[in-house]
Design brief:
mainly beta; two-stranded antiparallel ribbon; 12 strands; 61% strand
């Protein structure tokens, strides 16, 4: 009798394991989304030491690209790592600054939540929102030092599934970077004399529109 109960227990355990494995097989696990985009905005506030007035050193609008990696928490949300890069020129009347290329890179971690209207992530259009935190790395061309600062982003968009493994991804995202106010950045050595920008502001904001293809495994 004991042997029968043991065999029955093992059979039940095996059945539960198979059902769980089948359920996990139906659930998405990992997602890769390469994308291209267009990034706008971005300026450093600079105070003129002689007049006390504030002017801006802008970053030109330009193309961007990146990749988003997602690890699914459940059918409708996933943890993500986001990388996005743009190379664009400074726009300024200052001869030292004008025409210098600045590479701006975002390294972000966070999560995305989808909101399917009928409860299926494979419906025609699925809206989503995304929230991340991380770091921004600024690197000007030439001998100037790079700068890395804390940042965060908030985004949203629409997914248009082709099937269970592929979806078109249309997104909008805003990035907010916190910079040290009243400090010199992008320098070639010690001191403030050989620096591109002496910022008086405390934040740097950019907006980005993207289009990509999500591949789910």
């Amino acid at each position: 009798m004991t042997r029968c109960w043991t065999l029955s227990g093992l059979a039940c355990l095996a059945a539960v394991s198979l059902i769980g494995a089948e359920a996990r097989a139906d659930r998405p696990v990992f997602e890769v989304t390469p994308f291209v985009g267009y990034r706008m905005g971005g300026q450093f506030d600079v105070e003129n030491e002689e007049t006390g007035k504030t002017r801006s050193v802008d970053v030109s609008d330009d193309m961007s690209w990146g990749i988003d990696l997602g690890l699914y928490r459940d059918d409708y949300s996933y943890y993500e790592f986001l990388y996005s890069e743009q190379s664009a020129e400074f726009e300024s009347q200052e001869p030292l600054v004008r025409g210098v290329d600045l590479k701006t890179e975002y390294y972000q971690i966070g999560g995305t939540v989808m909101f399917p209207a009928d409860g299926s992530r494979y419906e025609w259009i699925v809206p989503y929102i995304s929230l991340t935190i991380g770091a921004t790395r600024f690197k000007p061309d030439g001998p100037y030092d790079s700068e890395t600062n804390f940042s965060g982003s908030f985004g949203g968009g629409l997914r248009i599934p082709f099937n269970e493994n592929f979806a078109l991804n249309l997104g909008l995202r805003g990035y907010l970077t916190f910079v040290d106010s009243d400090s010199a950045i992008f320098c070639t050595g010690s001191g403030d004399l050989n620096c591109l920008v002496k910022t008086s502001g405390s934040t740097f904001f950019q907006g980005e529109g993207t289009i990509g293809v999500s591949v789910t495994f």
